[in-house]
Predict the structure.
Amino acid sequence: MRKRIPVLLSILFILLLTACSSHSKVYNLEDITQLFEKGDLHLKPQAEDNYPTIKNVKPSVYELLDDILYIYVFESEDKRIEASKGLIVQELFNTPSDINPPLSYIHHMNNVLIIYITSSPLDKNFKKQIDDIITAEQVHK
């Protein structure tokens, strides 16, 4: 199972890098948090801490159903794509290789990278709810 996580993350980033990036809407943090609220997923802001940055972008961090959601807002989709190249979540969060790493679900929407860290697999309906929020917004842009 441990060997599959890096492979799955690599595949996800290949898909991410092949996405079209021209003339995309630029989202801000408020846009993203409102999408979650509209989707009936309530985010609880977490106190500023020493959270990992990606290419000098600090995340906004929220609790979502007892787990942690990191929202990275980049200046452009191109900068988000560049920052995501070779990103390995376990390394970003300094997870030792001798313990079971937390599960991470990565979503991207134009200039935004969302990383959801959970200690257990997501319920299929909950994962679909997050996917639907992001997909619906991309269709309406």
Helices lie at 4-17, 29-38, 77-84, 89-92, 124-140. The CA atoms of residues 2 and 55 lie 26 Å apart.
